[in-house]
Amino acid sequence: MLIDVIGKLAHSLLRARFLPSLLKWRLPLQLGGFPTCSTLFATHYLRSFHAKVRECKLASAILFLDVKSAFHSMVRQIVFGPAQAMPSHLQALLTDAGCDPEALRQTFEATSAAFHEDVSVADQRLLQDAHVYTWFGLAGTDEAFCTARGSRPGSPLADIAFNAMMTHVLQALHDRLDRCIPLQQGFHALGLKAPPVAWVDDVAVPIVVTECAILETTLAEVAHLTHDVFLQFGLSLNFKTKKTEAVVSFRGLDAPAHRHSVLVERLGKIDIVPLNMQLQCVASYEHLGTIFAADCTLQREVAHRRVKAVQAMRQVGKPILRNRHVSVVTRLKLFECLIVPVILHGAGGWDLLPHRLYHSLHSSIMSWQRSIINDGCWTDDQHTDFELQCMWKLPPLALRLAKARLLYAFHCLAAGPSLLVDFLTSVAHDPQGWFAALRRALVWLASMDASFCPLDLHRDTVEQILSWFAAHQKHGPQRVRSLYRRCLLQFHVVGHIVALHKQLRSTLEDGGVAFEVADEPALIPDDAKFACDWCSAQFDAKQKLQAHMWTAHQLISDERKFVFSDTCLACKDASGLQRASSNIYVFLVFYLMAAMLR
After folding, report:
1. Which residue stretches of 2-120 are H helix?
2. Parallel, antiparallel, or unpaired for β 59-65 and 202-209?
């Protein structure tokens, strides 16, 4: 145990001494393992690229790469020099994988030149010694096995050593992509160049072409040259399902035909003839914990986040969050720490949410909070969502999103890659994009403190908004958090006032006082006829109201009380719960009509 701890401490010191040199070598979009970098930078870069491509109406794709046993496959001599020769068994493994050991050995002097120039001699020796005579053991045997490659997974040096090697891999990949003519023509039509983005061993390659017809061949060409570049450094790509895949977006007059040909007729398979392999094309891909969809929407991402939150809720719900021996205030704080970060992961980089998607998120969070507080359809004195949030100082979803977007904006505009900011500002005029959501967050910020955020800032130009964020970079995030807490306290005071007002009115009405009903202008369309008794929502159909009552307030309709399975009790049709509920509704209507005719 002591040896393990002392070894990790020594490696931590080596990491701190090696990091400044690596910061000079890394590429602008090489993000993982470096200070102030966030996974949101990579995912938001891909989303903003996709938004720009959609605006220009160009066909595009994102090639997501997965390296086989990435950390274990690092050839150490690429970074630390040829001081230690490659053993024969390692050369045999590289030859079997398709790599030329002799060609790789000839590059050691060039790839390790920066290491010998920028790192002190003492640190060079220590880093080289840390990657020589490494051993591992297996359960069931007392033998130790010596390793000749890899970056020592579990060590503080693991990611930084692998990143040092990836600087050479990514630079070689950039050089090869610059010679891909269809890809460069696509970047020219786009107006911006989109190089690959890397988070340690997770690499994504944006692809855009001028014509929909050449997207498939360009994607196969990029996949081929990417495979060759990684193999040149002793790394192999994994082309299995959910590993190395591509998210394709066909656009143009021929898009439906190409989409049907690739995704339907060939089941998403694209042949890479020189490699005798097939690349899988999918509609969405999980990258760095988030879902990237071909339609450039957040439906799949929000659904993915909800599934993750449900799984977390199942683990801690019954033993912790619904434990009546723990105070409600404590359980709500634990909910904010354990569940909310899961369901709102990456919310700072989200675009404006559609109305239905927003309310689905709101209802999910409120249903869990109601189960913790024990206030819902199963209680006699159920409170509305607004009353519950004010009473327990629960932030509304709109307030959570505004805070997340503002804090992310401060971070992104200060520490994010310049290319990310270029893509964000190029689509800032999108009425449903991230910049539009940021403007709405600035409206809330100005309403809370006009001396800190000008009232008209959300109407200013993109340059003025960026200048304001740069001017308030030092104390801005702290001020946003302070105003967020103040807003919660204001909601709490308003909740007390509303509760006392209702109590006063109820007392006066019990005493015989009659109040006049004032006609207020409706804030909803004129065709809305069905109003919710628990919130301000109104609908133009009873079925919509009933769906809202269930999703938002967990109140079931009358016909749903007769549905016990996916088989309708009236006609024995096993078509699902929704069809069974609809059949019961129709059956009740006809039954009432027959009773009236009699």
Report:
1. 2-25, 39-56, 77-80, 88-97, 101-106, 108-111, 113-118
2. antiparallel
Nearest-angstrom CA–CA distance, 127 and 105? 20
HEC per residue, 368-390? HHHHHHCCCCCCCCCCCHHHHHH
In a 10 Å sphere around its CB, with 0-12 CB exposed, 13-18 middle and 19+ buried, how is residue 478 labelled?
exposed
203 φ/ψ angles, rounded to the nearest 5 degrees: -120, 140
Q: What pLDDT digit, counting tens, does each position of 482-503 carry?
A: 999 999 999 999 999 988 988 8
> Residue 88: which residues within 8 A CB-CB, separation 6 or more?
none
- C-alpha 372, offset from chain centre: 27
Give backbone dihedrals phi and psi of 117, rounded to 5 degrees, phi first: -90, -40
Q: Looking at the chain, how many residues does it have?
A: 598
Yes or no: say if 383 and 495 are a contact pair by the CB < 8 Å rule.
no
- For the entire predicted model, the pTM comes to 0.85
Give the separation between CA 25 and CA 42, rounded to whole angstroms: 19
Residue 457 is given by DSSP the state G
Cα angle: 86, vertex 84, 130; to 5 degrees: 115
Query: Residue 137 phi/psi, 5° resolution?
Result: -125, 165
SS3 221: helix
Within a 10 A sphere around the Cβ of 306, how many other Cβ atoms? 16
The CA distances from residue 509 to 290, 301, 495, 504, in Å, are 53, 49, 21, 9
Token representation of residue 197: 């983005």
CA 488, 493, 499, 501 torsion: positive or negative? Answer: negative
For 130, other C-beta atoms within 10 Å of its C-beta total 20
The predicted-structure confidence for 416-473, as pLDDT tens digits, reads as follows 999 999 999 999 999 999 999 999 999 999 999 999 999 999 999 999 999 999 999 9
